[in-house]
Amino acid sequence: MAITINGNGTVTGLADRGIPSTAISAGGVIQTVSSVQSSTITSTSHTAYTEILSGTITTTVANSKILVSGVIPVYINNPSSTVWTNAIYVELLEGSSRIAIYDHPGVQNGDTPGELSMCIPVQFLTGTKSDATSYTYKFRAKNVGSGDTAYYGRTTDSSSAWTRMLLQEIS
Fold first, then answer.
1. What is the pTM of this model?
2. Over 90: is that where the pLDDT of 123 sits?
3. Which residues in the chain belong to E strands, given as ranges?
């Protein structure tokens, strides 16, 4: 069937919800959704995870996959510790289920209490997904040890550094 752009702004000749899946090669990006957290989130907990950012994508093609990628800027300090410190765990959830965990080691401070600033990369490709289904992904983090204070979305000089999540449906 021919694709026609009508004078009123509508398009005819496309499959339901747009381009037919047969027109997209394997591994191609079908759609992209982004989420941004522009404020600083502070956490001192080493027992519970703190939600940093979430994003939702609704699939348009059966058997597609979701590529979750992002960056979490964080500044961490512990002014009273001279042992291993400034380490954090980051987990990626799909809905309420953990699908990945990342361990970001801190530093051995020796005789000097320390601070650490880093950007944590996150990337994960899911298994196949159902068509026309919404999936919510979350970045959550917690400190490894007590006494640390983590500032997600902040640099060493207290400037804002946005946390970002990119969700891509892949054919």
1. 0.81
2. yes
3. 4-5, 11-12, 29-37, 41-43, 50-58, 65-78, 88-94, 97-104, 114-125, 134-143, 149-152, 163-170
